[in-house]
Specification:
single chain, 198 residues, mainly alpha, Tetracycline Repressor, domain 2, elongated
Length: 198
């Protein structure tokens, strides 16, 4: 294979990657700004600056695009600097670092859309399971969750933080007035798990 052929193939691969990333980013932005109902091929293509033909060349459907967009978003959650997890309070901080960021609204929008759309659920259901591994008490942080009390407390804290994230999403992405107080209570309680007498 000549250098020119290699260069052309790499260029084509780069163009493909760039177009797919632009479409996925555009879909994520529409989800955040306007919700799943506004995610159309026309809107996504306009934002990405590509043709509908390019969209159909790279994705068979909007649900397939959304699945790719969510995976890419999850990757940013993993690569973003998060607090070092050493104990239950820092596990809570690490989880909040994921679900408390503004772009997490795209995940919430996708979950809500999936609940009412069997076609979408079939495509992104497996992707939702992938997200669960980021905040799963049986994941890499499991040595911190040494017993049922620690696991149960973390599950309660995680579900509370998802509620805060939903509240933030419905508040224009701004923190809720009670958010800090709730997080402080979760952290304080986490420090005391296992020390309480029955």
């Amino acid at each position: 294979m000549s250098t020119a052929e290699t260069s052309t193939r790499r260029t084509q691969a780069d163009r493909t990657a760039t177009t797919r990333a632009a479409l996925a980013d555009a879909a994520t932005e529409v989800l955040i700004e306007r919700g799943w109902a506004a995610v159309t091929a026309i809107e996504v293509c306009n934002r990405a600056g590509v043709t509908r033909g390019a969209f159909h060349h790279h994705y068979d459907s909007l649900p397939e695009l959304l699945a790719d967009a969510l995976r890419r978003l999850y990757a940013t959650f993993v690569t973003r600097k998060r607090p070092t997890v050493t104990d239950l309070p820092s596990l809570i901080d690490g989880t909040w670092a994921i679900v408390g960021q503004p772009r997490f609204k795209a995940v919430l929008e996708a979950w809500l859309a999936m609940a009412n759309d069997p076609t979408l659920r079939a495509e992104i259901g497996p992707v939702v399971v992938e997200f669960a591994s980021l905040v799963n008490p049986e994941g890499k942080e499991s040595p911190i969750l040494v017993d049922a009390a620690h696991r149960d407390y973390y599950l309660m804290a995680r579900e509370t933080m998802l509620g805060l994230a939903l509240g933030r999403a419905t508040n224009g992405g701004k923190p809720l007035g009670h958010e800090k107080a709730v997080l402080d209570v979760l952290r304080a309680g986490a420090s005391n798990v296992g020390q309480q007498q029955p």
